[in-house]
């Protein structure tokens, strides 16, 4: 029998090439090998303020992008988190079992809360909800970018603690699947910050829905350095190293080979070819995306996905509630 994999993306903006390289590209590659479930985690998105109309639109856009990148609803279960109430229910149970200190130590919470004046309690409890997402679908593997490693480790520790208290094998302990290149794609404007879809500086990322001419402009204006030679040196040339990783991930070429190709050309030719490469991958995705946004198929796919996801999630939730004494009959 195939093992389960689970992952999700927040509709907190339009996905960027970082989300694609770090996670979404692998979703497609893995759907044949595994019993795959992919979620649009809209309840995670509200851990920071969202405009309701925009959130509705972003949810639909993300569903369309999932399918446009190549997810096949016949192979993968695709659903919206809020269509499966077990996620919020399990999230609460897990919140009550996780230590406050564990949650406060999470880097993402520290980074995001430092940038905001008002922080909601959901931002702190985000990893508990994420743990629930993974364990409800009995996932053995979770394809994610490097920024989610710490949250995944928390989920793994939670499973150990839950199973040792309530019974071995009750919950499945998940393992991460990380890409070889582009685990952590950095901002085009600041190579010490990760690329994020909610970055207020739109030049910092390439969105999956950026027009080709915008992509070319953003890549050409990406930060570089004064060294002027293409090397893979994360310490001294972090911006170029980042562009090389994006290139390697999208082309499938080894970084050494790319460095050889551009070693004597300077940054201009390298950036032009990188921009063309990104456009060549994104353009066909956008064509399929536009067709999907105009059809009604999307809602049927999400409804079918929710039916399947509810079945699996409700079973796991029932066993957790039984263990905890919440199910009293
Ligand atoms: N910079 C990144 N490099 C590689 N992978 C990344 N991911 C996110 N940023 C990078 C991976 O994309 C998947 C979906 O991410 P998410 O939507 O769940 O939330 P996030 O990690 O917080 O991503 P963003 O783009 O930074 O969103 P906002 O701006 O809303 O916080 C995950 O697998 C993640 O690892």
UniProtKB/TrEMBL annotation:
UniProt-listed InterPro entries: aa-tRNA-synth_Ic, Rossmann-like_a/b/a_fold, Trp-tRNA-ligase, Trp-tRNA-ligase_bac-type, Trp-tRNA_synthetase
Keyword Calcium included in the entry's annotation: no
Positions annotated to bind ATP: 10-12, 145-147, 185, 194-198
Keyword Aminoacyl-tRNA synthetase: yes
Subcellular location field: Cytoplasm
Family recorded in the similarity comment: Belongs to the class-I aminoacyl-tRNA synthetase family.
Stated name of the protein: Tryptophan--tRNA ligase
Organism: Facklamia languida CCUG 37842
């Amino acid at each position: 029998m195939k093992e389960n994999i689970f992952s999700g993306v927040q509709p907190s903006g339009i996905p960027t090439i970082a989300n694609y390289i770090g996670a979404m590209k692998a979703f497609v590659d893995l759907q044949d090998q595994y019993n795959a479930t992919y979620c649009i985690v809209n309840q995670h998105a509200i851990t920071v303020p969202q405009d309701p109309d925009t959130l509705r639109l972003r949810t639909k856009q993300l569903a369309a992008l999932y399918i446009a990148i190549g997810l096949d609803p016949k192979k993968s279960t695709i659903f919206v988190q809020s269509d499966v109430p077990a996620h919020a229910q399990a999230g609460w149970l897990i919140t009550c079992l996780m230590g406050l200190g564990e949650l406060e130590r999470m880097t993402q919470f520290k980074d995001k809360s430092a940038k905001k004046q008002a922080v909601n309690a959901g931002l702190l409890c985000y990893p508990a909800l994420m743990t629930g997402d993974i364990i409800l679908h009995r996932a053995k593997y979770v394809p994610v970018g490097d920024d989610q490693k710490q949250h995944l480790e928390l989920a793994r520790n939670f499973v150990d603690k839950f199973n040792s208290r309530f019974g071995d094998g009750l919950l499945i302990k998940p393992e991460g699947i990380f890409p070889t290149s582009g685990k952590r794609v950095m901002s085009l404007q600041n190579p010490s910050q990760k690329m994020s879809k909610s970055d207020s500086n739109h030049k910092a990322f390439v969105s999956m829905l950026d027009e080709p001419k915008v992509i070319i402009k953003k890549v050409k204006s990406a930060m570089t350095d004064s060294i002027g030679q293409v090397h893979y040196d994360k310490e001294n040339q972090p911006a170029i190293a980042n562009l090389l990783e994006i290139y390697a991930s999208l082309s499938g070429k080894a970084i050494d080979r790319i460095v050889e190709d551009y070693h004597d050309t300077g940054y201009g030719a390298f950036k032009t070819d990188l921009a063309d490469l990104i456009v060549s991958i994104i353009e066909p995705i956008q064509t399929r995306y536009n067709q999907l946004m105009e059809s009604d198929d999307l809602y049927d796919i999400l409804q079918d996905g929710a039916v399947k996801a509810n079945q699996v999630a409700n079973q796991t939730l029932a066993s957790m509630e039984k263990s905890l004494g919440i199910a009293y009959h």
